[in-house]
Design a protein that fits this description.
This protein is of the alpha+beta class. The protein has 9 helices and 5 strands, in the order H-H-H-H-H-H-E-E-E-H-E-E-H-H. It has 3 domains: about 80 residues; about 170 residues, Lambda Exonuclease, Chain A, CATH 3.90.320; about 60 residues, no CATH class. Helix content is about 40%, strand content about 15%.
Length: about 325
């Protein structure tokens, strides 16, 4: 087995704490400004439920990490470590057994180990297919981080300190990509570790927004590209990536850039200090929401027969009560105003 590294995402102390001092005066929860930069996950959450977006990214009240989040983080880190080792070694062909040993760098909680190993095994079985393509000399990168400003210029993950404003607006991290510079096209794969597979086309003819945003980012950083092919790799479901969505510049602009700009305009038209401007919206995740007890919609929804696994149920109960009390104070203050 490869050398293990401890990740903060697998630390019980990190899992059991909410990053807010609930004993502090209410004024400390009143946000002064919106986030400085946005990501796909932020924008997707806002589209799904503006109230939860406000709670997590404006008021900055964090939820606990659940088992799926911890498992996903461990698999992503393991695959990243294994790929970096492979790229550095440049073997003629892939020895999947040795690759798994180089990728097995994480120490997930005990009940995640079986699925963690399954995720690495699934990726290793497809890896030779990726590696066979080396004859065309693609640039292969894993966990490629990008940052784009409001003029859609590349500014890196932390933004452009020499030209503020506008600074960074959108940033993200692509799990795996292969760029064929001479042929002017690229492949993008996003790894998914849930048991419910992600669909490349959630609606007929409309590609998943995450893939469109990533394709747009690649066009911004590499303007010589003509085509970007994208796909999800549902590691717990399939042994290879899904059939993908192909983007040219115009299509990436339509489904990626325009979607980002529309949601950013909507977010920035709202007052971050007024919770009533961030209305809750019912969606399929309401039954699992950590803040549903303090939400007018969440209170009406019966909790599904699903309880995320916790490492300390007593500590979790205390945290749930603290979150509930905080949201009730926020709602009371809004009514008083």
């Amino acid at each position: 087995m490869g050398g293990k590294r401890k990740s903060q995402t697998t630390s019980p102390r990190t899992i059991q704490r909410v990053e807010v001092d609930f004993s502090a005066p209410h004024s400390s929860f009143v946000p002064k400004k919106l986030p400085a930069a946005y990501s796909f996950s932020q924008l997707s959450l806002f589209e799904r439920c503006p109230r939860k977006y406000w709670i997590e990214y404006v008021a900055k009240i964090k939820t606990l990490q659940t088992r799926p989040l911890i498992l996903g983080s461990a698999i992503h880190h393991g695959v990243e470590d294994g790929l970096k080792h492979l790229i550095a070694a440049q073997p003629t062909e892939v020895d999947t057994k040795k690759w798994i040993e180089s990728a097995d760098t994480q120490s997930p909680p005990g009940d995640c180990v079986k699925d963690y190993q399954k995720g690495l095994q699934s990726f290793s079985e497809w890896l030779p297919t990726l590696w066979e393509d080396r004859a065309s000399e693609p640039e292969i990168a894993t966990e490629w981080s990008f940052g784009l400003n409001r003029q859609w210029h590349s500014v890196g993950w932390t933004g452009d300190r020499l030209h503020k404003p506008p600074g960074i607006m959108l940033r993200g991290s692509i799990d795996l990509m292969a760029i064929h510079h001479f042929e002017a096209f690229a492949y993008v794969w996003d790894l998914k570790t849930g048991r419910n597979p992600y669909e490349v086309f959630p609606s007929p003819g409309i590609p998943h927004r995450q893939l469109a945003v990533y394709a747009w980012a690649l066009f911004c950083f590499h303007p010589h590209l003509d085509t970007v092919a994208t796909s999800f790799f549902n590691l717990m479901v399939n042994g290879e990536p899904e059939e993908g969505a192909i983007f040219d510049l115009e299509r990436a602009m339509e489904y990626g850039r325009n979607w980002v700009e529309k949601l950013v305009r909507d977010i920035e038209s709202r007052d971050p200090t007024k919770i009533d401007e961030w209305e809750p919206a019912e969606n399929r995740y309401c039954g699992y929401c950590s803040f549903k007890e303090g939400c007018p919609i969440g209170k009406k929804i019966q909790r599904k027969k699903f309880v995320p696994k916790r490492w300390n149920r007593k500590d979790q109960a205390i945290t749930d009560e603290a979150v509930k009390a905080t949201l009730e104070r926020l709602n009371d203050d809004m009514v008083d105003d």
